Amino acid sequence: MEINTGAFMPHFANPLTFKEDPLIVKKAEGVYFWDSKGRKYLDGVAGVMVVNVGYGRREIINAMKDQLDELAYNFLSYSVSETALQLSQALTQIMPGGMKEIFFTTGGSEATDTSLKIARLYHTLNGEGERYRFVSRWISYHGATIGGLSCSGHAPRRRHFEPLLLNFPHASPAYCYRCPFGKTPDVCGVECASSIEQLIRNEVPESISAFIAEPIVGSTGGALVPPDEYFKIVREICDKYGILLVVDEVLTGFGRTGAMFASDHWGVKPDIILFAKGVSSGYAPIGGVALGPAIAEKFESGKGVEFAHGFTFGGSPMACVASLKNLEILSREKLSEKSLKSGEYLKKKLMELDRKIIGDVRGRGLLVGVELVRDRASKEIFRDDESVGAEISKQALKRGVKIFGLKGHDSGMISDFLVISPPLIIEEEQLDTIVSVIDQCLDQAEQKYIS
Length: 451
Ligand code: PLP
Description:
The protein is α/β, with parallel strands linked by helices and 451 residues long.
């Protein structure tokens, strides 16, 4: 059969632009993938911050094949596979905050939606059923479902779907390079955290169920790292108003930011953790929600209340076995530590480029963002009709390196940015290749956009 893109609809893309020059991926190994014409690329984004242990890991693939022979499918309602039990146990042992139970989904958006329901039911069991709203932040992403998108603070992804979205308040982002409170790090009062209290008070505190945040903002902000005190203050506010703290580790989990979970950088103690992506390194679709002690205990003792929620393909035996092997590899090869070290190296190399289009280099571990500006001193952003980030990623792909280049639309608050987030196994010479290609593309962009 002739292969063409006619019947296919791409994700997060304009179908017409995509189909003009589609990238058809054929195979992958280590940190590289090959297209259908046999061209080799360095994957500088690990799929989409997913393939943490790299492609082609035989021990994961073989374990999945064995699992397929033994048990291909199981529905997690009134039965459970041994692998789902093993993975639940393994995850609770490595997660921060003394997580007690795991609810499996097939990805991150389902995890966010599930957490909305878990939080709601928890409050209902506590006699506070009127708590139904999540507070989130602008410049954030928590999923594409209506629940996930209602939490997300990304104007372009929300725009066409109003007024379907739920009425969830959004706080200011923790965005030090362009502090929404006009501060600089030397005089920072962490207003991005303390102002959440005022927002909650304005929005009827008794209606708020949880505060949700990515510990380090990934795809919508280009690796925004909060001030060190941020989550301590957030935790105090949540406790003061009886609000749960949901930490979205979908993108940041499993070594991505140089710790097993980004929460570990600051000793955050979430009530609920969302995970997906790196839990299986993409060998099978899986995600989930981890419940902290107070919630797990409430559900266990909650008069046997049924949690009427689940997914046909949640926590499939194959996805669980892939995840178990993936966790083994992450730990055996100390990939969190490697990610931290490689991330520092990558940031140093990017800063050394000293290009005037680079406004900020930021991130932790192998989640690195580069914000692009027309003018460094004034931090002037690019116009809406200038797709600087997207053009740079297109040029990089032509040179055999995949990175993300995104338009930071959000109400003019953020400029175009690049995200570099390769598999955690990447070596320094391969990082050098990424930096060299970025340098060539930035040179081209400077000539075009900066006079
Ligand atoms: N949460 C965060 C922080 C994400 O980055 C993403 C996806 O990029 C999601 C949730 C949604 O996950 P999924 O695409 O698996 O539904």
